[in-house]
Amino acid sequence: MDIKEEYKDLLDHISLDCVVFGFHENQLKVLLLRMKHTKEWALPGGFVREAESMEVAASRVLKERTGINDIFLRQFHVFSDPERAKRNQAVPDVIESGLIFPDLAWFNQRFISVGFYALVEFSHVHPQPDLLSDLCEWVGLDEPGTLILDHNQILEKALETLRLQLTFQPVGYNLLPEKFTMPELQKLYETILGKELDRRNFQRKMLAYNILTKLDEVKPGVAHKAPHLYKFNLENYRKALEEGLSGRW
Amino acid sequence: MDIKEEYKDLLDHISLDCVVFGFHENQLKVLLLRMKHTKEWALPGGFVREAESMEVAASRVLKERTGINDIFLRQFHVFSDPERAKRNQAVPDVIESGLIFPDLAWFNQRFISVGFYALVEFSHVHPQPDLLSDLCEWVGLDEPGTLILDHNQILEKALETLRLQLTFQPVGYNLLPEKFTMPELQKLYETILGKELDRRNFQRKMLAYNILTKLDEVKPGVAHKAPHLYKFNLENYRKALEEGLSGRW
Fold this sequence. Notes:
Distance between the termini of chain A: 52 Å
Largest interface: A-B, 37 and 37 residues
Oligomer: homodimer
Radius of gyration of chain A: 20 Å
Shape of chain A: elongated
Number of helices of chain A: 8
Largest sheet of chain A: 7 strands, mixed
Strand content of chain A: 25-35%
Order of helices and strands of chain A: HEEEEHEHHEEHEHHEEH
């Protein structure tokens, strides 16, 4: 599909930005794009076609960037500061991409952006740059630096949302492999929260939520005192997503 | 301001709808408008001016409908089904309002709507209809009937959000008067949850959250065994809003 086709039936003023979280080597990472011309980094994002809902548009964008269908994603906030998009930052890339003037004007209008976060299993993702970028890569949460536009704020708000959710909803399914150890789950929580947790308290609290099934298997490839494997009890997990973990009235 | 002035610098494709909750006579109520021509009921809503963020636009709309400045409001969801707005439902009212054709076409475009909920102290509100409506009234949550467009869905999602928040965040400030009794607070929770709660459990749980200050006063005008008055400890309340009530890691 050429660029003009791509931009043909997009709605004015509405965009989306995606914060894609993946967990790898005990670290929470986020998927970023490097803009072709300016070499600045950005969150993956896109626009909305006439026939699409926001969710369908976000799924399409993420399928293009990750290769994954049916990615787990959720709206978390609308970013609508009238000054948020100094779009001319991106203009050199738009010009380099071969977009002609009417499209550039379109590109420079004010956009209100719906933020989505996505949780993906790291190993399933095949990162793909978009028309305006030359790289698509996983970056550790401590190293994104200064992103374009208000993308640092969008990333921070996504993290904040995830942190608050840890206090009342289960998190981990979609981020961890099907079978995982308690230390791996704890490490995931620790990287989201940005702090260390007590091992015994963590285990006690997680088990009390009744969302884990302890398997009759240990972690393969560990010679001595190999940790047990767990998986999520999806029925209880989904119930906890709907009703909240602990505070049920 | 005449109508053309009002619609002059609005962004295409973006609207907002507000679910305004108030608590009165032990019942949770929602503010609705009655459309002039069709007599159908609708949530208060509006559009976004070029210089406004979504939040500023929502505050402006709610100031017009309620008379209240600095209303407590929060985004909760973006409604973007391409089929959501069969806007021609509202056309008779638009015509009656004196809008000319270009504005009607504008009015009939696809809108993606950002849902806000607002919590207000009932007694502070002075309901005002907008250009397209002849009534603005409080309606009990059990009696809204069929609203226009997807407004029933927006209302239901707002309630769902509030219910989930009860499990991890304090709710009540902005809805209750400054001083209130434990039975009044319980009744608020019961109307949001749509079920009765055990009195002693409720009190124990609420007190454990450490967000209430028991006052050295009883409810005035109650002859016998007048219940104690409480107010929120705003410092702890705000902390609980940020960190979650019970599940802190």
